[in-house]
Design goal:
Elements lengths: L1 H40 L23 H15 L6 H11 L6 H16 L6 E7 L10 E5 L2 E14 L2 E16 L11 E6 L4 E2 L2 H4 L2
Antiparallel strand pairs: 1-3, 2-3, 3-4, 4-5, 4-6
Helix pairs in contact: 3-4
Length: about 210
């Protein structure tokens, strides 16, 4: 009888050991699945150049210079388009574009709003920004600092009115920093941000335009 009980006890211990091994394996699989799921959630972006007429070779997570340029044009133009009243439109644009502006550039813009407001440069002022004729994309318009950082040179015409009266039409060259962004694609599908100016913008003269 004792031998029988000892046999059953050994079988029970063996069964418990087997169950522990199975549970351990299941836990290991759960950990691996969790790690794989987290890895799958990491954002992988494929940047498609704006002009595909000549074809293109693209690499996952590689930012084409044409995408950096197009992004800078689109965001900077919208940021500087005040259709009714700069005192309202300028701060509104900064808020709307928050996901496309680096924190340091947002801070600079907020300070710029205060500066312009104190000088009376926003109240009832409108502004539009357009690319200067025949100064669209060219390879020399984007400097590659590294795979995550670019300098985009935009030649733009700034046109302003105050209470409906034209007061400014000037051509400016803006050296704009464009950086890679980790913001969720839900908020920033470009995967890029404007990061302010590399150096002070300069007025474009006829001599500069010919370069």
């Amino acid at each position: 009888m004792g031998s029988k009980y000892r046999g059953e006890n050994d079988n029970l211990k063996s069964h418990i050991t087997t169950l522990r091994i199975v549970v351990g394996i299941l836990i290991l699989f759960c950990i691996l699945f969790w790690m794989s799921a987290n890895k799958a959630r990491e954002v992988q972006r494929l940047f498609i150049p704006p002009d595909l007429r000549a074809g293109a070779t693209v690499t996952l997570n590689e930012i084409p210079v044409t995408s950096a340029y197009s992004f800078a044009v689109s965001i900077f133009q919208y940021l500087n388009t005040w259709l009714e009243d700069g005192a309202k439109d300028y701060p509104a644009r900064v808020g709307e574009l928050a996901a496309y502006l680096s924190p340091s550039y947002q801070q600079w813009l907020k300070e710029d709003i205060i500066r312009r407001s104190n000088r009376g440069e926003l109240d009832r002022r409108t502004r539009t920004v357009t690319l200067i004729n025949e100064m669209a994309y060219d390879d020399h318009r984007v400097d590659i600092l590294n795979e995550n950082n670019f300098i985009v040179w935009l030649d733009l015409r700034i046109t302003e009115t105050h209470r409906g009266v034209p007061i400014k039409s000037v051509d400016i060259r803006y050296p704009i920093r464009v950086v890679r962004s980790n913001v969720s694609p839900e908020f920033n599908p470009w995967g890029l941000m404007l990061d302010g100016f590399q150096e002070n913008p300069t007025r474009i003269t006829s001599t500069v335009k010919q370069q």
